[in-house]
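User: Hand in any protein.

Assistant:
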Amino acid sequence: MEFRYCPACAEELRPITDGHDAGLPACPDGHYVHYENPAVTAFAFLRDGSGRYLALRRAHAPASGEWDLPGGFVDAGEYPEETIRREITEETGLHASDLEVFGAWTGRYGPGGKWTVDIAYHGHCPDGEIVLSPEKSEFAWVELEDFPTPAFNSERLALRKLLTKRMKT
């Protein structure tokens, strides 16, 4: 989204000419500076009782038809762990346990999309019936070594970290 006007006074934004914010669009009267801050997301690698991991196929853009993990954007005021628990339940009907952060990466939400900071979790899911939300079209429980290539770079980096960690143990 391109910001062109100050939200406080409606003056057209102009680039700051000097200092640490040089180049950023700002109100000439000093009310507002636009920072392109990333959105925060959370996603999880969930293991079942037999050691397989849950993969979900996306039903919408970006990356429609590609595999990824349960997850989504952190809402304002929400803790990332609350986010991942909410997203797991919304997308699958499951309830995760033993969730632990094992990494964070920067990414983009689709080609040329919004920059993100992506927090990766690892956890367990008890056996149960999966009820997919309209956001997902398919699921599979797979061995980590056979996990399909995830849609987003942060998920791919997290998968690589899990695989490397597993090889060391």
Q: What stands out?
A: The radius of gyration is 19 Å. The longest strand covers residues 97-108. The mean pLDDT is 94.
